[in-house]
Amino acid sequence: MLFNALNSFVINKVFQNNRFPLWAIVVLGSTALAITLSNRDILEGKAELPHGVSPSWPFEPLPYIPESNKKFVPVDPAIKTIQVEVASGESLSLIFQKVGLPDVDLLNILSLNKDSEKLKNLKPGQKIKFELSDDLLQKLVVEITNLESLIFSRQGESFSMRREAVKPDTIVVTAGTELKTSLYIDGKNIGLSDSVIMQLTAIFAWDIDFTQNIRIGDRFKIIYEKLEIKGEYYKTGRILAAEFVNRANRYTAFLNIDNNGNNSYYSEKGHALQKTFLRNPVDSVRISSRFNLKRKHPILNRIRAHKGVDYAAPIGTPIRATADGQVKYLGVKGGYGNTIELQHGGKYTTLYAHLSDYAKGLKIKSTVTQGQVIGYVGKSGLATGPHLHYEFRVNGEHRDPLTVKLPAERPINIKYKTAFEERTRMLISLLNHSKAHDTRETKKITETIIRLYSKR
Q: In the predicted model, is pLDDT for residue 435 greater than 70?
């Protein structure tokens, strides 16, 4: 060891000064003599050989290693893996300190690009994996979301970064039940998520009044997507097909996705479920007064036709336009109080009265879309309590909003019809399967459905 250090010192001096002085020759010569004497002692058995060294060393040649195989000679040190779940209030800097890593590695990682800036705002529950070799960081894996991770790998003194995306596996699930308590409770009892239950009510919202007309004994069956990552549940996806029997009336829905990625539902005959008008302009409320041309007014105390439907709801409940249209009137209108009137083409108008406020930015001649919030429930004008008064008119004549025949639904676009009918036949087969909760016996059909919908 001493000889090696001395030789290195001499050689460096020679290269620095670009000359070979007498003292350098003396030192190198002495070193060579000492090595020779040492080797003689080894050969004569006077010195102890290091473990594993042959007595003929250094005269025995070393084994030949082909140039192409030299890269396999070094053995990487063992990799140590540390898994961390981010706790509330923790930063990556604090986690690096806990793991015992230097700040310089963190700075190199954070300064790589814009993606690495995502590491500055970690959220509780995020997962981080460190891979260390001899206490040196070799790889850092940060889970940004369940579907995306950033991977940083050491490249000498710096790091490289790549993004890894995970695509969930799609499982087709069938479920169904008969209502014994309520749609929500019975749906939860068979394992449906809130998202699936809300999708179900939204799909049939144009045909079924889920706030008024659901009855014990109604039943439904659905086919929906369940998404998994590495075999573990991630979330529920879209409803692909549904059947709902309400008061002995059967309704069906099958998903179609157009070339722009827009989802819409059609009956098995290809008629759109989304009607031109919604039945109800407010969600999850009770009807306090129905359409009645001979009703006695609760405040005026005399017979006065009630030309609409009253929906009792807390002040501030959002009110939605029941169809696309244009604001015809907005302001105070006698006993109606704060009122909005919408024109829907040349034939239909709707009126919304007793509002507490209007949606921000709404004014006369503003265009609105179906489902858009236009105002909020109140009790302005002649009202005994907070509610929405809703009217529906056809060519100026008042009609009962709950029973009026709405404009005909649109048929499916001809260019999607063949593919839609193919998917619908398979989905109907699953809906009619005797074991609604078991898709193993229909594996071939479900695999085909997954393939067809994954293309959309």
A: no
